[in-house]
Design goal:
Blueprint (H helix, E strand, L loop, with lengths): L2 E3 L6 E3 L11 H18 L4 H13 L3 H8 L17 E4 L6 E5 L1 H9 L4 H11 L1
Antiparallel strand pairs: 1-2, 3-4
Helix pairs in contact: 2-3
The structure holds zinc ion (2 copies).
Length: 129
């Protein structure tokens, strides 16, 4: 089996343990990244909400910048503008999990109460109209 020596930990490891074309093993890369993240967190350059935002953006298939912009849109259901605190959120497509629209926290919770079920919502709508 082909092995390569990591320039950081000096361990010889199989090629699968290295990111492509890198001489630093995956373990050392992730160690370095988490150290860098810690530094940026303690310097205030990065906040936990940035990390959360980046994770949510990734889940929705958006970049952090795209998600930040999407969050600031008014709610697609009730039209409420995005508040400064507790901003509007991206609503994921039920199958793909990709971003479909921006909704406020209340409307998003409402969907949740209805189990994100269009038939159930349709029947509920009938009662109201
Ligand atoms: Zn290493
Ligand atoms: Zn709303």
């Amino acid at each position: 089996m082909d092995v390569k020596e990591c320039v950081t930990c000096n361990d010889a490891k199989p090629l699968g343990e290295f990111p492509k074309h890198r001489r630093v093993c995956k373990k050392c890369v992730s160690k370095r990244e988490s150290a860098r993240r810690k530094d940026r967190l303690s310097s205030g350059e990065l906040t936990y909400s940035d990390i959360r935002l980046a994770a949510t953006a990734r889940d929705l298939g958006l970049t952090p910048a795209e998600y930040r912009e999407a969050r600031n849109k008014p709610c697609a259901v009730c039209g409420k503008p995005s508040p400064k605190e507790r901003t509007n959120v991206g609503y994921p497509h039920p199958e793909t999990g990709r971003y479909v629209a921006t909704v406020c926290k209340e409307c998003s919770t409402g969907f949740g109460f209805f189990g994100h079920d269009p038939d159930r919502l349709r029947r509920a709508l009938k009662l109201l109209t």
